[in-house]
Amino acid sequence: MLFDSHAHLDDERFNHEQDEVIARAAAAGVTGILNAGADMESSQRAVRLALKYPNVYAAVGMHPHDAKLMVNDDYDQLAAWACEPKVVAIGEIGLDYYYDHSPREIQQKVFIRQLDLARQTGKPVIIHDRDAHADILAIVKDQGKGIPGVFHCFSGSVEMMREVLKLGFYISIAGPVTFPKSVKLKDVAAQVPLDRLLVETDCPYLTPHPYRGKRNEPAFVRLVAEEVARLRGLELQELAEAATNNTKTLFGLT
Ligand code: NI
User: Fold this and answer.
1) Please, what are the domains in the chain?
2) pLDDT (tens digit, 9 = 90+) per residue, 70-126?
3) Residue 126 · residue 91 · CB < 8 Å
4) Please, what is the angle between helix 183-191 and helix 158-166, to 10°?
5) Around ion ligand 1, which residues have CB less than 5 A away?
6) From the CA of 173, how far away is ligand 1's center (Å)?
7) Handedness of CA 76, 122, 225, 21 (dihedral sign)
8) What's the mean pLDDT in 146-151?
């Protein structure tokens, strides 16, 4: 019983293979997949995938990379999608100061407006944070009050984890936790309270060991969960059940 809380099955690397990839995930014990949008086109594809596959859910949102493309009508479109039954979150949204594909002020503005959208539509948020820890925390503290959500593919320190937990957010652990050099992330994965922990693949990116370098897919969330369980001295089953229940609680799935 596993749940991949963050995937991009709509990515062109899965074209014409989605049936097989979803079947392999089911065979690996993955009972649910949340497909995150990253721009308007992929958000639309996420909505369609969720309609097509019973165990796939959608999030819609504009990733910070393309924040500069966001126009007013896009917020209305996101709000309309957010009302569809299998659209369970606004995401992925946030800040990315590693690539800086959009100017930082625009990333911040678009992030804040999508937090507003989450509040208006009553949806949780999926936050992308790369090298923007301080600004993300400041914005969420200031503008995100009362909005539930998750820091996806968490990459901060244990100290940052504590700040995120104080804000009521969940922490999602992805494939890099399996890399031998991810000492900081292994620390975080060992210490997140069991009732605040999610697991994900972020596929097709961030493929866990020993498949690093190949395309990632939801079945590999098992490798992430196995490593997190090992770090905590838990059985896979116990970890998987907790993470799956957390995912369902956060996103309102029954
Ligand atoms: Ni992602």
Assistant:
1) 2-250 (3.20.20.140)
2) 999 999 999 999 999 999 999 999 999 999 999 999 999 999 999 999 999 999 999
3) yes
4) 40
5) 202
6) 12
7) negative
8) 97
